[in-house]
Amino acid sequence: MSLLALFSARFSRARAYRQRFSTSVTDTLLFHPAADALYGFPGARRLAAADTPWQRIEVWDTQQLGCLFTLDGRPMTSAGDEFIYHECMTHPAALTHPAPHAALVLGGGDGGAARQLLRHPGVERIVVAELDPDVVRLTGDYLPEVRGNAFEDPRVELVIGDAAAFVASTQERFDLVVFDLTPPDSPAAGLYTPAFYAALKRVMSADALVSLHLGSPFHHAQRVGALLGGLREAFAVVRPLAAYVPLYGSLWLMAIASDTLDPAGIDETALQARAAERQLEGLRYYDPRLHAALLKSPCTARDKLGEILRL
User: Which residues, other chains included, contact 205 with Cβ-Cβ below 8 Å and sequence gap of 6+?
Assistant: First the structure.
């Protein structure tokens, strides 16, 4: 083969590779958790989109995690791994409480948190306060397995509107509060403030627990630190917990806060007994045997966040 022919063949192969790579990038759903970080899901296909008064909602089909939805380009929930964070956001707090009867979910329009809370037979009342009705509609259409039949259960009331307005107007008291919300730099910003924490305490029972997302210790260190600082000013007990969430592309931190109950202060035997009494079976991630490990932040997160993760 002549030098010219060899060069031509190599150029053709390189051009074909670039074309294939370009197509792959075009078909890749990309997320930017931080300015210097990027990850994504090749082969994604957008199924639906809606621009609402508050945000842009998109639903995607992916090879890796099935259907997922995003809000303003941020990953929210996927059919493939939602059980990880929904179980961690509900069961550690619910089992720490000796007898929860009422729960409030702020956000949570996909129904995943309500579905998990319904596993506790003593929970007689769940209010889901979701701002955007299109989140409920689109996740119901494309991710029905996430909510199951939660919104048809008579114990669940779906309230469409501002969660802060609901908290300000209700006379109910709740034993569990789940912040299943977008991050602080979003329409939910007002719910991560000292003023809202004070308003929330008015509707919390004396031994209530709050759980919420914090973010990635590697991509959102400042946000995590600010959230933990605010929680520690408002609540006597604040315990971070960690799990790897594929959709979020990172180790993911959450927290449980309370003025009276400590999720790190209940031993495995008591947790196992409560789980058995409540017939809490069929979970895919959380287990009472995992409880203590979830609350012990990994060394890598400690190194990254330093003193803000002190226990």
Answer: 102, 173, 174, 175
For residue 250, give the H/E element and its range: strand 250-258
| Tens digit of each residue's pLDDT, the chain (311 residues) | 443 343 344 334 433 433 333 333 337 899 999 999 999 999 999 999 999 999 999 999 999 999 999 999 999 999 999 999 999 999 999 999 999 999 999 999 999 999 999 999 999 999 999 999 999 999 999 999 999 999 999 999 999 999 999 999 999 999 999 999 999 989 999 999 999 999 999 999 999 999 999 999 999 999 999 999 999 999 999 999 999 999 999 999 999 999 999 999 999 999 999 999 999 999 999 999 999 999 987 776 777 777 676 64
DSSP string, 16-33: HHHHHHHHHHHT-EEEEE
Of 86, 82, 310, 89, nearest in space to 210 by CA: 89
Contact partners, residue 119, CB within 8 Å, separation at least 6: 91, 278, 280, 283
The span from the CA of 122 to the CA of 79, in Å, is 27
Structural domains in the chain, sorted by start: 82-105+162-309 (3.40.50.150)
Does the global pTM surpass 0.85? yes
Dihedral sign, Cα of residue 201, residue 204, residue 208, residue 214? negative
Distance CA 24, CA 276 (A): 48
Q: Which of 116, 132, 230 is nearest to 187 (CA)?
A: 132
Catalytic site positions:
180
User: In terms of Cα–Cα distance, which of 45, 50, 78 is closest to 135?
Assistant: 50
Q: Which residues contact 236 (CB under 8 A, 6 or more apart)?
A: 258, 259, 260
DSSP conformation class of 255 = E
Q: Which secondary-structure segment (H or E) carries 91?
A: helix 82-96
The pair phi, psi for residue 33, each rounded to 5°, is -65, -20
